[in-house]
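Duplicate of earlier report; Alpha-N-acetylglucosaminidase input re-posted below.
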Amino acid sequence: MSNLKTLLLILNLLLVPVALSEPEAIQKLLRRLDSKRAPASVQEAAAKAVLKRLLPTHEASFVFEIVPKDVCRGHSCFKLHNYNLSSQHGPQIIIEGTTGVELASGLHWYLKYWCGAHISWDKTGGTQIASIPNPGYLPPVKDEGITIKRPVPWNYYQNVVTSSYSFVWWDWERWEKEIDWMALQGINLPLAFTGQESIWQKVFMDFNISKENLNDFFGGPAFLAWARMGNLHAWGGTLSQNWLDKQLVLQKQILSRMLELGMTPVLPSFSGNVPATLKKIRPSANITRLGDWNTVDGDPRWCCTYLLDPSDPLFVELGAAFIKKQIKEYGDVTDIYNCDTFNENSPPTTDPAYISSLGAAVYKAMWEGDKDAVWLMQGWLFYSDSAFWKPPQTKALLHSVPFGKMIVLDLFADVKPIWNTSSQFYGTPYVWCLLHNFGGNIEMYGVLDAVSSGPIDARISKNSTMVGVGMCMEGIEHNPVVYELMSEMAFRSEKVYVQEWLKSYSRRRYGKAVHQIDAAWEILHHTIYNCTDGIADHNTDFIVKFPDWDPQVNPRSNISRHNLLQMLLRIDVKRRSLLQDTSSDLPQAHLWYSTQEVIKALKLFIDAGSEFAGSLTYRYDLVDLTRQVLSKLANQAYLDTVIAFRRKDVNAYRLNSQKFVQLVRDIDELLASDDNFLLGTWLESAKKLAVNPRERRQYEWNARTQITMWYDTTKTEQSKLHDYANKFWSGLLESYYLPRASAYFNHLSKSLTEDENFKLEEWRKEWILFSNNWQSGNDIYPVKAKGDALAISKSLYEKYFS
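Output:
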């Protein structure tokens, strides 16, 4: 321990020759990052290229010009001016900005608030640009122009697992669209994690570890995020050299475009995760084997990875080598590096001095590779492992590096902020982040009021150390309303009145104002998008996360039959159409709003359908809302089935179980009517990256497994992570979720009609075997929509709610 304290003292002497205050340190960092940006002409050309890809007809209508921060008193900003109001030819609007991102953001702001346009991910309906006037007829801004400043320097983007849940099968064409979207939304601090396995291969080979010895270190393509964090190894692998090489090429394309637009990419750094063979090569190194992370039986083929202790000199040696290798491959592109050594991996002792020593060692590994390095850390550990990270431990970690050399992501600030219970992270700069999504689940959900006010409250609070806002969802391409509002908060200095903003949003999204739609969004604001229960919203609807349990009443229970039935049937009809009594032993699907109110919103959406023929944004929202309503109805049908089973009511059991099964079929047909809810798209994108049959089989298995079982099983025990990344996709419901429910209900029915105990283990055996076969399957699923979404939605509404 004394050696560690000595190391900490030396580090402090080396790394902090002059103590800087937090604001001074951040300003110094910003100036240094500004000096690394591409030339003005490159950023202007990059912004113009974004315009050309988005709106080629208006390429000549805008002029882009990079300006210094001095024009906005040291802030990042964009300005909108009229160019020449007397001419209908040539440029009409000048957009000035401090970087290429600001130029693209200024373009987006103008298209939204002067032209009524809307831009979202293609898989959430894409763009609505029909409202933009023709070239020569663009609306002017005020004579004096418009200036929009960033109240905080950074707009951060991505979770460390987004690369696996959403980006894993992307090619450059899809990445180019994403970076355009990022620039238009004002994102200037994106995570850039693609291709790092290729860098690690080069580094470990320099340490005498062969390519073959890395085969069981890297995970498969769909599980790389967790291999990087040291949660698992080899699961879904091995990685081919083709994968490694192509991902490195892709990363260089990604970084090049980010830099052209003036973004600051965040690169990975060393967190201590090492191959097993390093213990043999360096037997004296302080390498320990970690405990189990979510396997069913501790199978060493993928369980229990190896961690090099940060106090070991080899940690700094490896960490510095990794940073230097990235600089050699990519150039000097950033000073900001992500590291989450202690994410779901607590230090071995709560001693603050020891924790401080570990933090200093982690930073020293970065500093040895880049003397200007800044450590960006996800703050999830302070929430998820709050029992360990008490104030002394938290402060020790945060203060283990010089001020301005660490930035914390307040990852779950939309629901469980840490800044307000930690004295502003004890003076450490932080980013207010929206987490919002887990596993890429498809669920209409949000906390719009918190998004519209939380960043403002944090920024203006006493002694605030907030330096940015961010979006850290585990998976993307859902709930476009949430991400549009959150992106705007990067440029908002005051709270947003959400109800008025939503009226503007819906008009932009669909291209016109329709009173039924305005009324529907008012309902959605106060129901689906007003979750205040503090529960992290994993989608637990029973279709996609089917309960794995024995629903028979426990014979040892001292609850009388009468009281049990009263408990089961206690339903608040006004506020809940699903049973939510937490005293009940029934499964609980997350529900935070009145389903009856949302059914009204659906009716309003359907009634407005004739106004939106051909609108992809309307179609997406209609299908998503109908799915949301029907999935909650299916939850009720499931509970009614269980209640009937417990009451031994054969007729009611049959009626409700058949209703659940029919709802699965109906939702599958509904989802098939929109291109954005198709299983086939996910699977085909995976297979498209393969260059040989072996890769094709591996990539498809990875893609199928991640969204179903996720991790390992035994013959009678499902993966502990089954359905974590569940999806409401047509094809997945019909071929996977439906057989699961049908098999379960068949076993329940046999138990009921033959008056015998429910054989849970028999059902599990049957289901796990089916799932394993499905995961290894190669059936082809559609990649094009079929059917009329509005007609299907109308029909289903009449079927279930008329």
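The domain at 587-801 is CATH 1.20.120.670 (Four Helix Bundle (Hemerythrin (Met), subunit A)).

Merging into the original ticket.
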